[in-house]
Amino acid sequence: MNFAILRVQKLKAAVSVRRSMKHAFREQDTPNADPERTLQNTHFGPQSVAEGMRAFNARLPEKVRKNAVLAIEYLITGSPEAMHAKTRSEQDRYFQDALSWLQERHGAENVVYAGIHRDETTPHMYAYVVPLDERGKLNCRHFLGGAKALSQMQTDFADRVGQVHGLARGIENSKARHVTIKQYYAALERPKLEHGRLPVEQLKPRVLKKGLLHDTVEAPERVAERITEGVKRFYDPILREASTARLERQRADNMASLAKAKDETLRALKPLTEGLEPAQLQELAALAEQKRQENAVTQEAERRVKALPRLKRVHGAVQTFAEMALSALKTVSDQWKKVDWQDVEHEAVKEIHRNGWTLRHAFRVVMEHSPGQAGVPQERIEAALKEVPDTPGQEPPAQKPSRGYSR
Predict the structure, then answer these.
(1) What one-character DSSP code corresponds to residue 205?
(2) Which residues contact 4 (CB under 8 A, 6 or more apart)?
(3) What is the pTM of this model?
(4) Quick one: how far is CA 406 from the chain centroid?
């Protein structure tokens, strides 16, 4: 089973927030991060610790209780095998929906920073939230108070975000112990253990205290927990290796399929290329590549069209765009090529921005979900978004965003 993972940690001091942000922005030594992949990380909002702390301090109320929780640190990811099986685009959509969920839960203005780390073992998202309630007061208990509230939060996240991306909720009321973000990181980076066997001694209840008449032995529940830990310790490496091998086989199969398709294309073109000059062959190859790219864009656009009904059931900015896109499709009898996607995108950006989302978030939703933006490389999307303001409350753009803004 592939699980959605949501972890929280309370930060009660500004120095704790700064220390955590230094890790998030890689402004301190991070041994478990690959420096060659750090540039693949994505930052939403602040781009440095200094900017992040300014945003954090700006949201704090004038009066702060001595023992108040100043920020909630969220870590959002999924089962390692599930995250590695997703494409970069699929991962980004999961994290974007998770961010929208956080912004809806706490208010977009209170999510002072979010970022995706791709330079560690498993892709994950960090987010820092100032827990202000509807009265504008720090009130962490309102969001995380008690086991019941935490359980409801996990269920809501799994239902509204995880399920959309093929990730299930963990077992409710499980005896499994949740770990802190720090412990989770340590578990991810724990060196592999040698494969081994579960000793017979592990199966026997242990004597905790000797008595004159009766010995005190472990409860059956504790024995079960210890056996589970032993099994995981010995066989987790095997499962990880199996997952890695599966991914390698999948990559090899994909490469073989591409090679086979290329060979079949060359065989089909061979009768047409006999007697052609080198320049003519080069021109024919260029036309074939252009056609392949056009087909790929069309397939992506069709995939996005088919995804719209599902996106309509999500929430937030994504839901707004999906509703407007489906309405536009209905006017042309669902013939998506006849839709003026530029006009739909422009109106969607204005509506999303009017609903309180930042302009950058509005553009991101459009660029990642609109059939009219199919085929735009992720790196170009990120480059274009850096040019869009990320502050809420600004007026929507006066002119329509053309397809060129994402290219």
Answers:
(1) P
(2) 76, 78, 157, 158, 161, 162, 165, 167, 168, 169
(3) 0.46
(4) 21
